[in-house]
Amino acid sequence: MTALLELDGLTKSFGGVRAVDGLSFTLAEGEILGLIGPNGAGKSTLFNLINGVFAPDAGRVMFRGIDITGEAPYRVARSGLARTHQIVQPLADMTVLENCTVGACFGRESLALGAARDAALEAAVLVGLDDRLAVPASQLTIAGKKRLELARALAARPALLLLDEVLAGLNPAEVDYMIGVIRRIRERGITILMIEHLMQAIMSLSDRIVVLNSGQKLAEGLPAEVANNPAVIEAYLGDPSLAAELHGGS
Amino acid sequence: MGDALLEIEALEAGYGEVKVLWGISLAAPRGKLTTIVGANGAGKTTTLRAAVGTITPWAGRVTFDGEDVTRLPAHAKAARGLVMVPEGRQLFGDMSVEENLEMGAFSKRAARSFSGRLEQVFALFPRLDERRRQKAGTLSGGEQQMLAIGRGLMSDPQILIIDELSLGLAPVVVHQLFGTLKTLKEGGLTILLVEQNVHLAFAVSDYAYVVAEGRIFTDGTPAKLAVMPEIRRAYLGV
Question: Average per-residue pLDDT in chain A?
C-alpha cells in the first residue's frame, strides 16, 4: 500500500501548551483511519495543521508524495484534500445545491460552473440531500446541515477527506444513515481520516485507530487492539493508583 | 427511589441545535454520594447544568425535595439548596477568599446562617482560613478547588453537586478533597459528583451511573460496576 498522507514529527504550541507534540503517522490509500482521544488531546488542531489553517512549528505534512506543510488552506483543497468542520459552516443564505457547487468550484478539479453543478448534484445525491436541493442551508435541520457539510467537501472530489465529528448531535437513525454514507464514500475510493466521539461507530467504521493524548500518539492499531491497550484504558478511565491510595489511606 | 432528594427523569438538553442528552434518568438519594462517570462529551456536565438550571432542559423532569423544579431558574434552585460547584471552579479571581465565600451565601436562607457556616468552612479547610484576605486568583489549584467547595457550602446546600473534583489536581490534594467529601457525607449532606477518574469515583460512591453518548449506559453500586466489561465498552466502544 502506498501512503497517501504522511505526518512526520508535527508540532504546534499555543502559548506554553503543546497542542500537537511530535506526531507521526501515515494513512494508506483507500483506508479509513479513526482518530480518538480525550477532549483537548489535539485532534482538531491536527486537522488544522494538515489542511493549512495553522502552520506547524515543526514537522512535515506529505500528501501524495508532495510536501504541503504550511500551504494555505485553499491550495491544500485544490491538491485534493477536503474537510468538514465540527461546528457546521454552511453558507446560510445559499441553497443546498449552491453550497455544494461552491465546494466543487474550489476543489481538486477547479471545475467551471456547469461541471461544478454536476459534481455538486452527485455529492448531494450521495449524502441523501437530493430532495432538498433548492432549500436555503439555514432551513435545514442539524442532521441536514451535517450532511451538507459532508456534501460540500465531497463535491470538491477529494482524494482525502477529513471528517471532524460528523456524527455528533445526530439521533440513532441519523447516525446509522450517516455511517452508510461514509461507507459509500469509501467504496468510491476516497480515503478518510475521521475524528469521532461516538465510539461504537468509529470503532466499527475504521480500519485502524490512532489514539491521541496530550498532543502525542498514545496508541495505534486495529480497533480491538487499541480498546484493549492498558495505556488507552487508563487515558479514558483515569489513573487507578489514585483510588488505590485512597483505599489504603482511609 | 422513594427517598431521592434529587430525581432526574428522561432529561433531554443541548446547545443551539445540537442535542446532547437523549433521555437521562437518575436519582440522588438523601445522605448518599452518587457519581456520574463517562467519557468526554458523554453529557455529564450538561446533565448537571440542566439539573441546576444554568441551561434549560428541552424535555423531561427535575424533581427536588418532592417539588417539580424543571423550569425554575438557577438562582431559585440555589435558594432551595440545590447547589453546584462548577467545573473549573469559576471563582471571582480579584476578590478575596472571604469575599468569595460571602458570594456563596447570597440567598436569604444562606445569609441567615452566615457566620456559623463560615466557621464550618474554615474548620474544614484551614488553608482557606490562613488565606482569607488573599485574592482567589492567586491561590494554588487545590486551594481554589477548596474555595469553590467552600463557596458551595456557604449556600447552605441540601445537595452539593460537584463537577470534576480531581481534574488537574495533584494526587495529594485529590486525596485530601475526597477525604473532605467523606466528612461531608458523614455529616448528612447529599452529594452528586461528576468525576473523570472512574477508579476514584467508584472508590468513594454509594451508587454510580455510567453515561455514554447522552444516555445512561449502565448503573449500579461500584462493587457491581467495577467488574463489568461494559464500562470499557461505554468508553471505548468495543
Answer: 93
Higher confidence at residue B72 or residue B170? B72
- In order of start, what are the domains of chain B with their CATH numbers? 31-45+75-236 (3.40.50.300)
In chain B, which residues have their Cβ closer than 8 Å to the Cβ of A137? none
Q: Which residue of A has its CA nearest to B39?
A: A236
Half-sphere exposure of B143 (CA within 13 A, CB side): 20
Q: How would residue A1 be classed by pLDDT, with cut points 50, 70 and 90?
A: low
Q: What are phi and psi of B68, to 5 degrees?
A: -75, 110
| Share of residues in chain B with pLDDT > 70 (%) | 99
Render chain B in DSSP notation, one character per residue: -TTEEEEEEEEEEEETTEEEEEEEEEEEETT-EEEEEE-TTSSHHHHHHHHHTSS--SEEEEEETTEE-TT--HHHHHHTTEEEE-TT----TTSBHHHHHHHHT-SHHHHHTHHHHHHHHHHH-HHHHHTTTSBGGGS-HHHHHHHHHHHHHHT--SEEEEE-SSTT--HHHHHHHHHHHHHHHHTT-EEEEE-S-HHHHHHH-SEEEEEETTEEEEEE-HHHHTT-HHHHHHHH--
Residue of B nearest to A166 (CA): B18
| B227 inside 8 A of chain A by CB | no
What region, left, alpha or beta, does residue A11 occupy, with left being phi > 0 and alpha being psi -120 to 50 degrees?
Answer: beta
What is the per-residue pLDDT for A22? 97
Q: Tell me: the pLDDT tens digits for B107-122? A: 888 888 899 999 999 9
Distance CA A103, CA A129 (A): 15
Q: What is the mean pLDDT of residues B102-106?
A: 91
pLDDT at residue A250 in the model:
42
